[in-house]
Amino acid sequence: MKLDELIEYLDYKDLINFKNINITGISYNSKTTKKGDIFVCLVGEHTDGHEYAQNAIENGAAALLVEKEVKDVKIPQVVVCSTRHKIADIADRFYSSPSKGINLIGITGTNGKTTVTHLIQKIFEENEQKCALIGTLGYKLSSNSEYRDAKHTTPQAPELQATLRMIKDVEKIDNVVMEVSSHALDQNRVGGCRFNGAVLTNLTQDHLDYHITMDNYFKAKALLFERLKEGNFAVINADDEYGDRFISVVPEGVKVLTYGVRQQSDVMARNIDFSLNGAEFTLVAKAQEYKVNLHMNGMFSVYNVLAAVTTAIAMGIDINVALKALQNVKGVAGRFEVVVKKPLVIVDYAHTPDGLENVLKSAREITPEDGKLICLFGCGGDRDATKRPKMGAIAEKLADKIVITSDNPRSEDPQTIITDIIAGLKSMNPKKVIVEPDRGAAIALLKNIANNNDIVVIAGKGHENYQILKDKTIHFDDREEARKVFEGSVI
Predict the structure, then answer these.
(1) Which of 34, 227, 323, 360 is the most buried (most CB within 10 A)?
(2) How confident is the model at residue 7 (pLDDT cuts 50, 70, 90)?
(3) Which residue has the higher pLDDT, 45 or 109?
(4) Where does 328-386 have alpha helices with state H?
């Protein structure tokens, strides 16, 4: 694509050394820049891409997208106010706006995004339609295909637009359901994407190291709904504390459907019952009642199913088709995933106060009267520290015994993180609270703590198969570690 064509609709401030050269790609990492790329000088929290412009040129960059002129450079420079926002515009342009030809559904919220995307993909397939999925675990072209790697919950704009173009043109798939994180919205990674529908799971404390306040966090999430156009739809959790605020930002002409358990909603769950086999409830929609039997467990699973069914209704898919798809789902990797039978060991991605509370309440529902609920968890380093004592307090309140350990400590001292968690406890009763900073050793301790009729929740990392330490990233999978410890009772 010629440079003038690429920037035709770009609101740029200045052009330096302009020549109408051919652009063959977009890069923002100087190490992976190729000949013919336009190199985007992204300004982040820790790095400034302008400092790497010369490296990118040495690797073949043909032009630069900058916020300020890079001196002593002979190639064209396009000056814009924010490279972080404009990279999405040029990526959309370069890949010929792939989302225009796709039924693109965005799922946002603090918890539940991954599961809801998987459930919606299943519904499409039960309705004999192809659907691709983009999210935390990567992207996959069908529910039966393998994941392909993704670096973030929502990829950076060039990778995202390239993936959408591949899905549309190469794979001939017209439906895509995508997790949309608050970071991606705030940083405009999804700029250029035309969403036909947006879904809110919930909004609870997370990422305040980045957003600082809950109001900022809400505003980032709300962007997904504010950008909807007439004829699109919004699906919103009416029980969520922020539900009404999300409804208030939806533009006129956008169809709004709500779901819930407590608040009167378009789609509701009643008569909810939990057992070791899963959840049962009555779904009420369009003045009709439907009996639902899930292999998944916990109240959060009920909400996730309501979100998926409501989305199906918004798209005109038959409710019976949707329920048939969901009643066959066993669950999603690392989300209330049962990995050992005796004791029942559940691995879950819960890494926020609300997430931990939900998973422990769900586990309590299925804990036998003569059994204990045991929770092993930690908190991530270099992330919102204010949630650490809150998670400590929640674990102490809801579990009979807790094991406090490391999660992904990153550059922080694991003991400092653990001290923050302990600050939320009322007491350090050694009969109830065990501290072991080494996560592998902590999981091994469960062998001596848990009896066969107990329920063990290992929270925080879920599907992750790595642990990020101060100086390296190592292979580590909670599910593998638990199976090693309880070798004789592996499912």
Answers:
(1) 360
(2) very high
(3) 109
(4) 353-365
Residue 144 confidence (pLDDT): 85
Decide if 332 is inside a domain.
no
Q: What is the pLDDT of residue 266?
A: 98
**Domain match, 323 and 385 both:** no
Shared domain for 295 and 241, answered yes or no, is yes
Q: 110 and 88, same structural domain?
A: no
Same domain, 175 and 140: yes
Residue 62 to residue 115: CA distance in whole angstroms: 42
Whether the predicted pLDDT of 210 surpasses 60: no
Please tell me whether residues 75 and 107 are part of one structural domain. no
- CATH number of the structural domain spanning residue 38: 3.40.1390.10
Q: Do 65 and 185 fall within a single domain?
A: no
Q: How many CB atoms lie within 10 A of CB 32?
A: 11
Burial class (CB in 10 A: 0-12, 13-18, 19+), 478: buried
Q: Do 130 and 85 share a structural domain?
A: no
More confident residue, 250 or 156: 250
pTM as predicted: 0.82
Residue 45 counted as domain residue: yes
For 460-482, the pLDDT digits (tens) are 999 899 999 999 999 999 999 99
260 contact partners, CB below 8 Å, separation of at least 6: 237, 238, 239, 243, 267, 268, 306
Give CA–CA dist 472/363, Å, rounded: 33
CATH number for the domain spanning 194: value is 3.40.1190.10
Dig out the tokens for 133 from the structure.
């999925």
C-alpha angle with apex 66: 63 to 67, nearest 5 degrees? 165
What is the domain range of residue 172?
98-327
Task: Give the H or E element holding residue 435.
Answer: strand 433-435
Last residue of a domain, one of 94, 127, 156: 94
- Which contacts (CB < 8 Å, 24+ apart) does range 62-68 have? 62/21, 62/22, 62/23, 62/24, 62/35, 62/36, 62/37, 62/38, 63/3, 63/21, 63/23, 63/38, 63/39, 64/38, 64/39, 64/40, 65/38, 65/39, 65/40, 65/41, 65/90, 66/41, 67/41, 67/43
pLDDT, tens only, 23-40: 999 999 999 999 999 999
Amino acid at 106: G
Residue showing tokens 């073949």: 60
